[in-house]
Specification:
769 residues, mainly beta, Jelly Rolls, 4 domains, 7-stranded antiparallel sheet, 12 helices, globular
Length: 769
C-alpha cells in the first residue's frame, strides 16, 4: 500500500466510519409496528399537562432519554438540584437532538410526550401565556434564542389575563395591542409560525380584526405573516415577497375557525421551499390564486410588529401561544405542532377525524430527528493535521486521476443571461448578490439589474462575467449563488465534482493591481435553516493579486452561527481553520510543468473531485499544440465538510489593502461554464418516502409536455428540477414541463425533491431520450 493509501486508512480510522461513508444517514429500517398494548406513553413526564417541559420535568425527560439512548453521556443536572435548565441541557455538548439515535427512540415501547420546547434550539421567539399572571399585561418576554419583548406602555391599551389558562385577552372595541420592534432577519429566523387563539365574532364594531402583523408594512417581507379575522370570510393569512412584476402577495383564507369566543383554534404557517403553507385546526389551506413557483424578498427595515389590532373597533379575542421557529417543517411536523396545540388547550376533538392526533397527543418520533451536521473537533483536527506536503503533493504536476463512477447532473454553459436578484422569486438558476453581503470586502456588492452593472453578459460569446466596477470614488463588486437568499435552489450532497472553466483578462504581472480577490466556493445552506448552528464554508479557489501565481485552495471553515452567541452553537474560535493548499503555481513550488499566472488571459478548467475518501484538484493548461492537458495540483483526504450539502458561489471581491487599480477600468472574471457531477449509485438511490424512482412520460419532441410521477408515499409538497443534457431548465412545484425546440431530443431528466418530507429527500428519474 502506498504512503497516501496508508494515510487515508489511518485518517478513516481516526475519523470513524461516519466520516468515511456517505454523509446522508440511511433511513431507519426498524420495524416499529406493535400492538397498542405494548406501547406506553409516559404522560407523567409532563406532570402539569401543559405541553411544556419546565426545569423539573426536563430533568425527568433527560433521564428517560438517557435510559433509551445510551449514547447520551455525562450528567445533565450538573448542580444536583433535581432540575435541568435549557442551558444545563446544552452545556459543553451539541444539542441533544443531534446526539440522540432516532432508531433507539423508535424501538422503545415507552413513548415520550412531545412538546414544542422538547428540543429548544429550534424556538426563535415563543410568547406563551404561562409566562404571565392574571392582570394587565404591560410586557411579555419570549422564550427562545431571539429576545424581542412585546410591550404596551399605555395602560388603557394593555391586554389582560382574567385567570390562568384564559390566555392573553384583548377586549372588544378597545384597541388593545402589544408592540414589538420589527425583526430584520425574520425571513430566516421565523421560518414558521404557530398561533393558538380564540375569537368572538359576535363582538366588535368592525367586521375585521388584525390578530398579528409581523414587520408591518407594504413591501416584501413586511406584514409576513399577517393574520386577521373577518366576520364574513373567516381567517386570512398573508406572506409578501418580491418577483419580476413587483410585490408577490401570497394569501390563504378559511372559514374553519370556531369564532364563539370560547373555543381555541390553531394556525401553523410559513414558507416551505418557495411555497406558502398554512393549516388551521388540522386542515391544510389553499392559496387564493396560484402561487408563483419560487419566493424570496428583501430585508425589511424600520418596521414594527403588532399583536392585536390598534383600532378601537376590534373583536374580543385571546392568544394562548405565538411561536416562531427555525427550519422549514415537514408536513408531518406541521400536523404534530397542530396536535400539540390542540391537546394542550383541549380542542383535539375539533381536528379532522382522520388527523393523526385527533385522539392521541403526539410523541417523540423519527420526525424530530432530521439530518444535521455534527462537528467532531477531534476528527476535524486529525484531518487538518494530515495536510502535509508529502500527502497533498504526492502527484503534484502529474497526470490527473480520471474520476470514476460520476455522471453529469448540472451544466450551465451560459447560453442565456440567467443571473437574477437573490431577493426575488424570479430567478431559478444564479442569484445575486446572495445573503452574505460582506463577501465583496471593500467593494460593496451590486444586486443584478441595478447600476452599475457588475454582471455583464456576453451574448455573442455566451459568457457570464462578474466584475469589479468603479462608481464614483468606490468600487462595486459582484457575487452570485446557486440558491436564493432563503437557501432554495441547486445544491449537492455527498461525493461530487465541481468544475468551472474561466478566464481573467491578461494583465502584465508587473502591472497587476493589489487587492483583486476572485473566488469559487460553497456554503452549506443548513445554517440558513438552523440559524443556531455553526455554518460550513468550503473555498475551492481564492486568487489574491498580491501574487498572481498564488493559489489558496480547499480552505474549509466552521464559522460562527448566524445567531451569534447562542448557547446551541459551538464557539468557532475553538476550531482551527484548515487549508489543503497554499502556494505558487510554478514549477519550483507546485511541480507543474509551466507557470500558471492567473491573469494570463487564457481559459483554464478547474476541477474539484470530492470522492468519498480522497479529494483531487486538477487544472487544464495549454499543451503547446493548440490543445489542453490536465494536471493534478494536489490531493487530500476528504474533509467531512466537503461531503455536506453545498451550494456554489462565484464572486469578485476587493481587499481593503487594494491599490493600483486603473481609474475607471473594470476588472472581469469571465466564466465559460460550470458543471457538477455526482455518483451514479447516489442518483439511483431510493430514499424514503419514495415508493419507486420517479418516472417521466411524454414524447421528447418540441411542444410536447413531459410529466413526472414522483411516486411518493403520503407527501404532497414536492419540487421538480428539470434538466436537458444537464442544463438546468427551471424548477418549481409543477410536475410538467413543455419542451422547446432547444430542449427537444436532448436527454431530459428530472430531480424530485420531496420538500414536505423530513430531510427533503431527492430522487432522480432516468433520462428520457
Amino acid at each position: 500500500m502506498s504512503e497516501f493509501g496508508k494515510l487515508i486508512l489511518t485518517i478513516c480510522l481516526a475519523l470513524g466510519a461516519a466520516a468515511c461513508t456517505k454523509s446522508t444517514p440511511p433511513e431507519s429500517k426498524t420495524d416499529t409496528s406493535e400492538s397498542p398494548a405494548r406501547v406506553r406513553v409516559l404522560t407523567d413526564l409532563d406532570a402539569d399537562g401543559n405541553g411544556l417541559y419546565d426545569d423539573a420535568e426536563r430533568k425527568a425527560l433527560l433521564d428517560e432519554l438517557t435510559k433509551q439512548c445510551p449514547e447520551l453521556t455525562g450528567a445533565f443536572d450538573a448542580d444536583g438540584d433535581g432540575r435541568v435548565t435549557i442551558a444545563e441541557q446544552t452545556r459543553d455538548r451539541h444539542p441533544v437532538s443531534v446526539l440522540v439515535n432516532r432508531e433507539h427512540i423508535a424501538a422503545s415501547h415507552d413513548k415520550i410526550p412531545w412538546a414544542i420546547d422538547i428540543f429548544p434550539e429550534w424556538l426563535s421567539s415563543a410568547y406563551l401565556q404561562e409566562d404571565l399572571g392574571p392582570g394587565p399585561i404591560a410586557e411579555l418576554q419570549p422564550r427562545g434564542t431571539i429576545h424581542i419583548t412585546a410591550a404596551q406602555e399605555t395602560e388603557s391599551l394593555q391586554p389582560g389575563m382574567s385567570a390562568p389558562g384564559a390566555g392573553i385577552e384583548f377586549a372588544a372595541d378597545s384597541g388593545q395591542h402589544l408592540v414589538m420592534p420589527g425583526h430584520r432577519d425574520a425571513r430566516w429566523n421565523y421560518r414558521w409560525c404557530l398561533f393558538t387563539f380564540r375569537i368572538d365574532a359576535n363582538t366588535g364594531a368592525d367586521d375585521q380584526t388584525v390578530l398579528l402583523d409581523l414587520n408591518h408594512g407594504k413591501d416584501s417581507n413586511k406584514s409576513s405573516p399577517k393574520v386577521w379575522y373577518n366576520k364574513k370570510t373567516g381567517l386570512s393569512v398573508q406572506y409578501v415577497g418580491y418577483n419580476a412584476w413587483g410585490i408577490d402577495q401570497r394569501l390563504m383564507t378559511t372559514d374553519r375557525v370556531v369564532a364563539d369566543g370560547k373555543t381555541w383554534n390553531v394556525l401553523v404557517c410559513g414558507i416551505r421551499y418557495g411555497q406558502m403553507f398554512a393549516s388551521v385546526n388540522g386542515v391544510a389551506l389553499a392559496a387564493e390564486s396560484k402561487q408563483p413557483p419560487r419566493f424570496s424578498g428583501d430585508w425589511p427595515h424600520d418596521t414594527t410588529t403588532y399583536l392585536g389590532d390598534k383600532s378601537n373597533a376590534n373583536m374580543a379575542w385571546a392568544c394562548d401561544a405565538l411561536v416562531f421557529g427555525l427550519t422549514e417543517p415537514s408536513e408531518a411536523m406541521v400536523r404534530k405542532m397542530t396536535g400539540w396545540a390542540a391537546h394542550r388547550r383541549g380542542f383535539a376533538a375539533n381536528l379532522p377525524a382522520d388527523h393523526p392526533y385527533h385522539a392521541a397527543r403526539p410523541v417523540l418520533d423519527d420526525e424530530d430527528f432530521p439530518y444535521r451536521y455534527v462537528h467532531d473537533n477531534d476528527k476535524w483536527t486529525a484531518w487538518g493535521e494530515s495536510l502535509k506536503k508529502s500527502v497533498t503533493r504526492v502527484n503534484a504536476g502529474g497526470p490527473r486521476v480520471e474520476p470514476m463512477g460520476f455522471e453529469r447532473v448540472f451544466y450551465d454553459d451560459f447560453r442565456a443571461d440567467r443571473v437574477k436578484a437573490s431577493t426575488s422569486g424570479e430567478g431559478d438558476l444564479w442569484l445575486g448578490p446572495g445573503y452574505n453581503i460582506a463577501v465583496g470586502g471593500a467593494a460593496p456588492l451590486v444586486t443584478p439589474g441595478h447600476k452599475p452593472d457588475t454582471y455583464p453578459y456576453d451574448a455573442e460569446n455566451q459568457k457570464q462575467i462578474l466584475s469589479l466596477v468603479q462608481q464614483g470614488k468606490r468600487w462595486r463588486g459582484s457575487a452570485f449563488y446557486s440558491v436564493n437568499d432563503l437557501g432554495h435552489g441547486h445544491t449537492w450532497i455527498g461525493p461530487k465534482i465541481f468544475r468551472i472553466r474561466c478566464m481573467f483578462p491578461k494583465i502584465d504581472p508587473k502591472q497587476l493591481p493589489r487587492g483583486l480577490f476572485p473566488a469559487f466556493w460553497s456554503y452549506s445552506p443548513e445554517a440558513l435553516f438552523w440559524r443556531t448552528a455553526n455554518r460550513i464554508e468550503c473555498d475551492w479557489f481564492e486568487f489574491d493579486s498580491a501574487n498572481g501565481r498564488w493559489l489558496n485552495g480547499m480552505s474549509t471553515h466552521y464559522h460562527y452561527a448566524y445567531l451569534k452567541n447562542n448557547i446551541f452553537a459551538k464557539n468557532p474560535k475553538s476550531y482551527q481553520r484548515y487549508k489543503a493548499y497554499s502556494g505558487e503555481l510554478t514549477p519550483g513550488k507546485s511541480k507543474l510543468p509551466r507557470e500558471l499566472f492567473i491573469w494570463d488571459g487564457q481559459y483554464h478548467t478547474w476541477e474539484y473531485v470530492v470522492d468519498q475518501d480522497t479529494t483531487y484538484v486538477n487544472v487544464t493548461m495549454p499543451d503547446g499544440e493548440g490543445g489542453e492537458q490536465w494536471f493534478e495540483i494536489y490531493r487530500c483526504p476528504t474533509a467531512p465538510t466537503y461531503l455536506e450539502r453545498l451550494d456554489l458561489q462565484l464572486d469578485y471581491a476587493l481587499k481593503s489593502n487594494h491599490k493600483g487599480l486603473p481609474e475607471g477600468q473594470r476588472q472581469d472574471f469571465v466564466v465559460d461554464w460550470v458543471e457538477v457531477l455526482q455518483k451514479t449509485h447516489d442518483l439511483e438511490a431510493l430514499p424514503a418516502p419514495y415508493t419507486q424512482r420517479p418516472t417521466l412520460s411524454g414524447s421528447n419532441t418540441a411542444g410536447s409536455t413531459i410529466t413526472c410521477d414522483a411516486h411518493l408515499d403520503d407527501i404532497t409538497d414536492v419540487r421538480y428540477f428539470w434538466f436537458a443534457d444537464g442544463y438546468p431548465l427551471t424548477w418549481g412545484p409543477s410536475n410538467t414541463y413543455t419542451l422547446t425546440e432547444a430542449d427537444a431530443e436532448k436527454a431530459i431528466r428530472c430531480k424530485v425533491k420531496a420538500v414536505g418530507a423530513r430531510n427533503m429527500p431527492e430522487a432522480w428519474t432516468a433520462t428520457l431520450n
